[in-house]
Amino acid sequence: MTPGGTPGAPGVVVVTGVSRYLGAHVAARLAADPRIERVIGVDPPEPGTDLADLLDRVERVRVDAGSIGGLLTDLDVDAVVHLALVSAPDPQHGGRAAMKEQNVIGTMQLLAAAQRAPRLRKLVVRSSTAAYGASFRDPAVFTEETEPREVPRGGFGRDILDIEGYVRGFRRRRPDVTATVLRFAPFIGSTADTTLTRYFSQPVVPTVFGRDPRLQFLHFDDALEVLHRSIVEDHPGTYNVAGPGVLALSQAIRRAGRVAMPVLEPGLSGAAALARSFGFGRIGLDQVDLFVHGRVVDTGRLEREYGFTPRSTAAAFDDFIRAHRGGVVVTRDQLAAAERLVLDGIRQVRAAARERS
User: Fold this and answer.
1) d(CA 123, CA 15)
2) DSSP 154-184
3) Which of 83, 322, 329, 337 gives a 20 to 30 Å CA spacing to 227?
4) For 147-170, what is the mean pLDDT?
């Protein structure tokens, strides 16, 4: 047992978001723990074939997080792990409106159901260091008590602030439940597939001219370890979860063997278009602001209370590099297309400046 923990793992655990990478791995890990009697995975969609095999020991229920009130009571659930969050809007699935519906409304409904569950004694909620936002006014290091200097521009950061507000209300109404909020830094590692890993996997990486933000990463396996300990031990409170140390963006790009392509800061929409042109997918304002201003958090509380220190940011990033060594070589046509996007963005900024003058 680690410092701050107490004996006695919960008998029945519900995990939301099991059709996705993080939720499926957390549910599988808990199901393999002999101290836990039963793991129930909740998510409307079926998991993909790459995740289905992981869940052979997990009971699956196809409902959303906001519709499990009866489930929590009928099955005498002891613990809930809430992982069903969307970090970027998907235009093909409702965009920002659907994202907020799932993140904010879904969490609010889940907590209302949890409040009525008589046997519930543990709640673990996935949060993010995006709660702190990212701006030029930021302190060098955020602690759990640091208030954001500005409201995050991105939808995910604003959703996280709402979600944590609802959890604080839940704590007041159910002081008998151990509520744990985990503010995760961006995931990286040999197996993680995220916006961040796709960003660094591209041969040409968009950056902001004149900016070299400090970044922290969290190895995916260390995220699983912290989530597991949060269920089988008691760790009430809010915790920053990140790898110690930092990497400047320029250092990360060099370590990954990629080529940086700076764009002007007012033309960040061009940078997003550049990223999409290389197939790196969706990018929100939360990620854009992170790559402009960076973010570093203090993890002392986690290390003291859990007796666990994640591997360093540099070590986590190096594991990612080893798994993606070789990568993709940028073609001449791709580079020409990227240059055109950057130039178009610069022209748009200049045109807008002339209209304002």
Assistant:
1) 10
2) SHHHHHHHHHHHHHHHHHHH-TTSEEEEEEE
3) 322
4) 91
The pLDDT, as a whole number, for residue 204 is 79
* Residues with Cβ within 8 Å of residue 354, at least 6 apart in sequence: none
CA–centroid distance for 314 within its chain: 18
Token pair 């890990």 in the structure block, residue? 29
pTM for this structure?
A: 0.86
pLDDT value at residue 248: 96
The amino acid present at 160, given as its one-letter code, is I
Residue bearing the bigger pLDDT, 170 or 290: 170
Query: Is the predicted pLDDT of residue 330 greater than 50, yes or no?
Result: no
Q: What confidence tens digit (pLDDT) does each residue in 56-75 have?
A: 999 999 887 767 877 888 88
Higher local confidence (pLDDT), 272 or 18? 18
Q: Looking at the DSSP assignment, which residues form a beta bridge with residue 15? A: 41, 81
Q: Which of 3-17, 192-206, 312-326 has maximum average pLDDT? A: 312-326
Torsional class of 160: left (φ above 0), alpha (ψ -120 to 50), beta (otherwise): alpha
Burial of 307 (0-12, 13-18, 19+ CB in 10 A): middle
CA distance 240 to 226: 11
CA 298 vs CA 22, 142, 245, 249, 261: distances in Å: 23, 6, 10, 19, 30
Top-confidence residue, 142 or 153: 142
Q: How far is the C-alpha of 8 from the C-alpha of 243, rounded, in Å?
A: 28
Separation between Cα atoms, residue 223 and residue 202, nearest integer Å: 24
Amino acid at 177: V
